[in-house]
UniProtKB/TrEMBL annotation:
<feature type="transmembrane region" description="Helical">
    <location>
        <begin position="151"/>
        <end position="176"/>
    </location>
</feature>
<keyword id="KW-0812">Transmembrane</keyword>
<dbReference type="InterPro" id="IPR025828">
    <property type="entry name" value="Put_sensor_dom"/>
</dbReference>
<keyword id="KW-1133">Transmembrane helix</keyword>
<feature type="transmembrane region" description="Helical">
    <location>
        <begin position="37"/>
        <end position="58"/>
    </location>
</feature>
<feature type="domain" description="Putative sensor">
    <location>
        <begin position="10"/>
        <end position="193"/>
    </location>
</feature>
<dbReference type="Pfam" id="PF07730">
    <property type="entry name" value="HisKA_3"/>
</dbReference>
<feature type="region of interest" description="Disordered">
    <location>
        <begin position="394"/>
        <end position="416"/>
    </location>
</feature>
<keyword id="KW-0067">ATP-binding</keyword>
<dbReference type="InterPro" id="IPR050482">
    <property type="entry name" value="Sensor_HK_TwoCompSys"/>
</dbReference>
<dbReference type="InterPro" id="IPR011712">
    <property type="entry name" value="Sig_transdc_His_kin_sub3_dim/P"/>
</dbReference>
<feature type="domain" description="Signal transduction histidine kinase subgroup 3 dimerisation and phosphoacceptor">
    <location>
        <begin position="221"/>
        <end position="287"/>
    </location>
</feature>
<dbReference type="Pfam" id="PF13796">
    <property type="entry name" value="Sensor"/>
</dbReference>
<keyword id="KW-0472">Membrane</keyword>
<keyword id="KW-0418">Kinase</keyword>
<dbReference type="GO" id="GO:0005524">
    <property type="term" value="F:ATP binding"/>
</dbReference>
<dbReference type="GO" id="GO:0046983">
    <property type="term" value="F:protein dimerization activity"/>
</dbReference>
Amino acid sequence: MKRKLRSAAYVVSGVAVGAPLLVVLAAGLVLGLVASLVVVGIPLLGLLALAGVPVGALERRRARLVRQGPATSPHRTPDAPGLAAWLRLRVREQATWRELAYAVLMACVLWLLDLAVAACTLVLPLALAAAPAQLALTGGPDGGGVRPAKLWFVASYPAACGTALIGLALLAALLYPLGAYATARAAVAQLLLAPREAETEARLAEVTRSRARLVAAFEAERRRVERDLHDGAQQRLVALSMGLGLARLDAGPGSPLADRLAAAHQEADRALAELRELIRGIHPRVLADYGLAAAIEDAADRSPVPVDTDADLPRLPEPVESGAYFAVREALANVARHSGAARAAVHARYADGALRVRVRDDGRGGAEPARGSGLTGLADRLAVLDGTLTVTSPPGGPTVLSLEIPCDPMPPPPAA
């Protein structure tokens, strides 16, 4: 019974929402068209296009009367605060225009259907059930009788009570089709205002944005660690090495103290070399200062396997350069460790809105990313940037690793 009452409330509230909505939309359209003659109405018409947003929010909340839980909003959260960012995002979203179409449909058609269904399933039976009260209000049988719902004439209390029983029975019977109509009506609203495809796309978009934010935060933390090591620990080791070198000059040649200072000096130099290699692995300075092309050449020079490079690239966004650089470095490391290749080549170009890099070696082939070669992690890293990683490695070789990242080049720095 509770569910039937909620269905009745949903249908009646649809009439209460649709009738005022028709008045507001019609008045706003007329006022906007008239005021557009003096340009003032153009912003009003633009705001009228957003009228579906509050209507959609109200309808998703109203759907809780007949559906389990509120429908998820298909709208995304603006990336920046402020009304301007909110308006830009809403105008670009398909959900805004679906909600506007629903608002027009609600104002012109749906609330009239709700009114017709409510009149047939609620008003008519209740009017019959109220026959005794109507007869009493008109003065009873001596008052001339009444005609409940304009159907038949009732001039006595027994006839009025019989009419009331018919009305109650009719009301109980019509509550079932009323519930079916309310469920179908809510399903139409769900289909137009919050389709499951839109919900899935919104969630995937939010997951993608959150993953990109995590990668950006990771890159920022990587650069901070590199900067702290470069400007802090490395400078202290350099000072320590210089101090040990000066102390060796003051110690007597061949003395035990000179030998210990020489050993300490060598250890400091080795620690400094390892720290520099660690800093280069965290975030190479050449990548930040000169770009991806120079960083690829630097990685090729440090590879144990001879590498031919052909990289002609503009400056690209930092996440793109970083992702591509570490992919190339991991590929060259795999060439040195697993391929048995005598030579490798790296080709990198930017064209048609995407960075494309290809790493090729003449090794034995048979590389499988699923066996833990590090390529799976690189594919996940590139997926954050909407990039793709492809590995072709037949037995006997050659192995070709290709990556593609859609991006826009960075604008050139202003002339000095």
